[in-house]
Design a protein that fits this description.
Layout (H helix, E strand, L loop, with lengths): L8 H5 L1 H31 L1 H21 L3 H9 L6 H4 L4 H8 L2 H9 L4 E8 L4 E6 L1 H5 L13 E4 L8 E5 L2 E5 L9 E5 L4 E5 L6 E2 L2 E5 L2 E5 L2 E2 L7 E4 L4 E4 L10 E4 L4 E4 L5 E5 L4 E5 L16 E4 L2 E6 L2 E6 L2 E4 L18 E5 L4 E15 L6 E21 L2 E18 L2 E8 L1
Antiparallel strand pairs: 1-2, 1-26, 2-3, 4-5, 5-6, 6-7, 8-11, 9-10, 10-12, 12-13, 14-15, 15-16, 16-17, 18-19, 19-20, 20-21, 22-23, 23-24, 24-25
Helix pairs in contact: 4-7
Length: 428
């Protein structure tokens, strides 16, 4: 008999259980992997704080790299920022605070042409005077909200013992020379960078309310009541810090010397007229002295030099000079369109940078208030300070040129009591 064949069911049916085992193994592996992957997911959630820490470290590293730069480079960077940001910028570090407080910063600002005007205002009181500095942000901003500031926006500084004497702006400083009630030879200097006073060498002659001007880097003082018989002009050399009298005019002690818009003019007893050459230090006779369009009536009027051109204001008109002749700046009706400028108005001119001139003037402004129980009104006289920025342009016609101007803005800065007086304008 043939042998019966063995059944292969067991062999055929064995693979399915193996698949189940494999599936079970895969499920167990997947569950184990999922269990093992849970902490990995938690680490992914905690990654953003690590990035923030890295960002903080990178910013601090950038700041430390800035501190590694030389002070000259950091000072040049700070000089290109507006002065209105210096107060908050000085809180960054002690190094930045010391650089902002250093006088070298303003020297760099003037070298790169990034200067801003700063006004000096004096309050005349019966017993003493008070000095203030107007925040430059009021001058440089457009004051778009239309609000006029008051005296509370003035920064007080230490007053000088010389009250109501002659003041002259020289670079970053204001020189105060002579006396008011009595003649004095004392000279005090206010540094706008540090807002501190210092003593300068005394003049050779004690004077009372003299006239002064800055011509070719030297201070010239003319006139003023003196105790001595002669009040001959003096010149102060800023480099050597010394006073010297001007050369005489052929031993003529009766010659009269006047300051006319940055020029020294003299008339002798023989009615001869001379002009002083500040570069050569000598007097030169003038055959026909031309009166510059009525500007002789304003001998100590405001003037400034922009791009080697002298500018002044006469009867509300901005004028410019060439070889002793004066011409009006075209394109402008009046510098001070509002208010009306009279002989009581103080006008200051300053170089605003970028071919622009800054005109600052004040006016007397009256305010009326009703009085309870009476028909009359109380009149309070204040002083309102105005500011105008004018963009200048030279237009050439062959070998000749004309100066044109365009008013960029003109607005009132602040209103102060009548006892306040505008002294000078310094660009820092």
């Amino acid at each position: 008999y043939p042998r019966p064949k063995r059944s292969t069911k067991s062999k055929v049916e064995q693979p399915p259980p193996q698949k189940k085992k494999e599936e079970m193994n895969t499920t167990t592996v997947s569950t184990r992997a999922s269990l093992c992957s849970r902490p990995i997911r938690s680490t992914k959630v905690e990654q953003p704080p690590q990035k923030k820490k890295k960002e903080r470290n990178s910013s601090s590293a950038g700041w430390f790299s800035l501190q590694l730069l030389p002070d000259e480079i950091v000072l040049n960077c700070i000089a290109r920022i507006s002065k209105s940001q210096y107060r908050s910028l000085s809180l960054v570090s002690k190094t930045i605070h010391s650089l902002i407080s250093s006088p070298e910063l303003y020297t760099v600002r003037s070298q790169i042409g990034n200067t801003e005007p700063c006004l000096c205002i004096r309050q005349e009181l019966p017993t003493h005077d008070r000095w203030y500095i107007l925040d430059q942000t009021l001058v440089t901003s457009t004051n778009s909200n239309g609000l006029i500031k008051d005296e509370f926006n003035l920064l007080p500084i230490t007053s000088s013992p010389l009250s109501k004497s002659t003041t002259l702006a020289v670079g970053f400083e204001v020189y105060q020379m002579g006396g008011d009630q009595l003649p004095s030879s004392a000279v005090r200097v206010l540094d706008f960078r540090t807002r501190t006073w210092r003593d300068a060498p005394d003049m050779g002659v004690a004077r009372k309310r003299p006239e002064s001007a800055l011509i070719d880097g030297k201070i010239y003082v003319v006139g003023g009541e003196t105790k001595e018989s002669s009040s001959w002009p003096e010149v102060f050399d800023l480099k050597s810090q010394t006073w010297n009298p001007l050369p005489s005019l052929n031993d003529d002690d009766k010659a009269e010397v006047q300051l006319r818009i940055g020029e020294l003019l003299a008339t002798t007893s023989n009615n001869k007229r001379y002009a002083f050459d500040s570069k050569q230090g000598t007097w030169k006779e003038q055959l026909a002295l031309m009166e510059p369009l009525g500007l002789s009536y304003n001998r100590s009027g405001p003037w400034c030099i922009i791009d080697n051109v002298k500018f002044s204001v006469f009867k509300r008109k901005l004028m410019w000079s060439e070889r002793g002749n004066w011409f009006s700046v075209k394109g402008l009706k009046d510098v001070c369109t509002k208010p009306h400028v009279n002989h009581h108005t103080t006008i200051q001119l300053a170089n605003h940078g970028g071919g622009s001139i800054l005109v600052i003037w004040d006016e007397l402004h009256s305010l009326e208030f009703p009085v309870a129980g009476k028909t009359r009104k109380h009149v309070c006289k204040n002083r309102r300070i105005w500011c105008a920025v004018i963009k200048l342009e030279k237009r050439f016609f062959g070998l000749k040129f004309e100066v044109w101007g365009k008013v960029v803005r003109s607005n009132a800065l602040l209103t102060v009591p009548k006892s306040f007086k505008l002294l000078s304008c310094v660009t820092l």
